[in-house]
Design brief:
The protein is an all-alpha fold. The protein is built from 11 helices and no strands. The longest helix is centred in the first third of the chain and has 28 residues, at 38-65. It is globular and about 50 Å long. The N and C termini lie far apart (38 Å). The model has no long low-confidence stretch (mean pLDDT 94).
Length: 224
């Protein structure tokens, strides 16, 4: 079972191929050994900054879709982490490279970015908290896995700030909390044996699609 919870481990296993493509993408390997061109990294970072605006809105929608105070607290903590920590990382790195925040904010949204963020938001608009979480979880947990792995495998310090952010105790704690939220939401709405529900297949499909969109996002990063 994954350290991030039972449901995530099951969804990850059901999307094993795309998950491997996502977490071991050439873009990730380039950060590991420092071979990723800086221009590609900054292009990705600018797109990811735009992505985080929409991703934060989707997590705010999770507050709306919550049915308990505990669910609302978990979702709101994630929104705060995205706005206060992840976006701050992007701003800091880009400013150090001569890209001020106003230029970062004005970054045109690429098609791959648009497809992913709107897929996540639509999952929330048209479904309940479970549909939304199935679309949100791959980004959160995938970066947690990547950060943890690169923290031990990286052979270059070129991207150490990015790696350290996602390998940090704070980010790993956030992943655990999201995993607990997913398990709790499933148990509340479907029951302890949620993987036997007819709905489980659809949720896994949403998870897999979001994972495939993460692969496309890395690919977009390699094409400034």
């Amino acid at each position: 079972m994954s350290d991030y919870g039972k449901a995530f481990a099951l969804m990850r296993e059901a999307a094993q191929g795309p998950w491997q493509d996502y977490t071991c993408h050439a873009f990730v390997d380039g950060m590991k050994d420092g071979s990723l061109p800086r221009a590609a990294f900054l292009h990705y970072l600018r797109q990811d900054y735009v992505f985080l605006f929409h991703f934060s809105r989707a997590w705010a929608l999770a507050v709306v879709k919550s049915e308990t105070h505990e669910e609302m607290l978990a979702a709101s903590r994630t929104v705060n982490g995205l706005i206060s920590e992840e976006m701050k990382l992007h701003i800091g790195i880009c400013e150090a490279e001569g890209i001020p925040q106003d230029q970062l904010f004005a970054t045109p949204e690429r098609a791959g970015n648009l497809a992913y963020t709107r897929f996540v938001l639509e999952a929330g608009y048209s479904g309940d908290l479970l549909d939304l979480l199935a679309a949100l979880v791959p980004c959160v947990m995938g970066y947690g896995e990547i950060g943890t792995r690169l923290a031990t495998e990286a052979t270059s310090d070129t991207y150490r700030d990015w790696i350290a952010t996602y390998a940090s105790d704070d980010y790993q704690d956030a992943c655990v909390a999201v995993g607990e939220l997913l398990d709790m939401a499933l148990t509340r709405r479907i029951g302890e044996n949620f993987e036997a529900s007819p709905r489980w297949t659809r949720l896994c499909h949403t998870f897999r699609t979001a994972t495939e969109l993460e692969v496309n996002f890395w690919q977009m990063g390699l094409a400034p």
